[in-house]
């Protein structure tokens, strides 16, 4: 068994040159450093620091381009591809992309990362010493996250989703704050690795943040009013719904609660854009 392991950074001695690169050694085993992976001039006898990995032919090889993500070292990496039932591939700066297994991803593929999304992860080795990506656990996130100041209340924060649970979404902000979004504070569940932005609604004693993806009531009223106008426009300016309609009827036709509908409708009536008559709402001509 080789004393050299993929996923690690080692210092090796330049043994001798061959037409396609240099062989490096630790006086026990040798590994090839291809010309394309050399970043500085080297000669026989030099000591060089390299990262070890398996190439596409599953041969142990070396590179002087040291990736931030290693066995035991975590970092953000970009998703470059995904394969149904297999998982997603990430670029850590090597000629060969690394697989994050489907076993480490959400149950539903619709919540898997898309190319361009980013994951916070490390590298592990399987029984055949092949490298694969492993997502950071909650314990690791707790170690790398920062305590948020109370002044962040009501501020906007942006970051990447690192964990999905039925009860809500966890993301790490760009400043390193651990953020949680309860399912009631979002319209839809974001993907793992997706870049999200929300509004801080609570700064916890431990420095973690509770965040909402929903707009403020006054902002949402504008969105709901626009939805009502669009619906009226599709029906030639009239709809068989008014402020005394049943909640389930409003929900079915406009996908909003009765309270939200009445707020938005009141705004439109105050602005003299619509009027109500005998169970109907009409656009003013």
UniProtKB/TrEMBL annotation:
Q: Which InterPro entries match?
A: CvfB_fam, CvfB_S1_2nd, CvfB_S1_3rd, CvfB_S1_st, CvfB_WH, NA-bd_OB-fold, S1_domain, WH-like_DNA-bd_sf
**Transmembrane stretches, start-end:** none
Alphabetical list of Gene3D superfamilies matching this protein: Nucleic acid-binding proteins, Winged helix-like DNA-binding domain superfamily/Winged helix DNA-binding domain
Q: What are the S1 motif domain coordinates in residue numbering? A: 5-65, 152-214
- Pfam families in the cross-refs: CvfB_1st, CvfB_2nd, S1_2, WHD_CvfB
The family this protein is said to belong to = Belongs to the CvfB family.
UniProt protein name: S1 RNA-binding domain-containing protein
- UniProt lineage: Bacteria, Bacillati, Bacillota, Bacilli, Bacillales
């Amino acid at each position: 068994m080789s004393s050299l392991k993929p996923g690690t950074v080692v210092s090796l001695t330049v043994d001798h040159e061959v037409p396609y690169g240099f062989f490096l050694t630790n006086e026990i085993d040798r590994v090839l450093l291809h010309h394309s992976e050399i970043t500085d001039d080297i000669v026989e006898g030099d000591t060089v620091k390299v990262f070890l990995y398996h190439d596409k032919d599953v041969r142990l090889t070396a590179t002087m381009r040291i990736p931030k993500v290693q066995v035991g070292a975590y970092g953000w990496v970009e998703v470059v591809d995904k394969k149904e039932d297999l998982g997603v591939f990430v670029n850590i700066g090597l000629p060969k992309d690394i697989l994050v297994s489907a076993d480490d991803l959400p149950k539903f593929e619709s919540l898997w990362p898309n190319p361009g999304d980013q994951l916070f992860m490390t590298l592990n080795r399987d029984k055949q010493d092949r490298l694969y990506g492993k997502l950071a656990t909650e314990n690791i996130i707790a170690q790398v996250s920062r305590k948020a100041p109370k002044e962040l209340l009501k501020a906007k924060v942006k970051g990447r989703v690192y964990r999905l649970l039925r009860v809500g979404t966890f993301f790490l902000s760009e400043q390193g704050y651990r953020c949680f979004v309860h399912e009631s504070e979002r319209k839809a569940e974001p993907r793992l690795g997706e870049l999200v932005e929300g509004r801080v609604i609570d700064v916890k004693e431990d420095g973690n943040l509770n965040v909402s993806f929903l707009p403020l009531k006054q902002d949402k009223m504008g969105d709901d009013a626009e939805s009502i106008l669009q619906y009226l426009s599709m029906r030639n300016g009239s709809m068989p719904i008014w402020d005394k309609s049943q909640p389930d009827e409003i929900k079915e036709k406009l996908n909003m609660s009765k309270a939200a509908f009445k707020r938005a409708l009141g705004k439109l009536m105050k602005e003299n854009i619509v009027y109500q008559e005998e169970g109907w709402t009409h656009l003013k001509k």
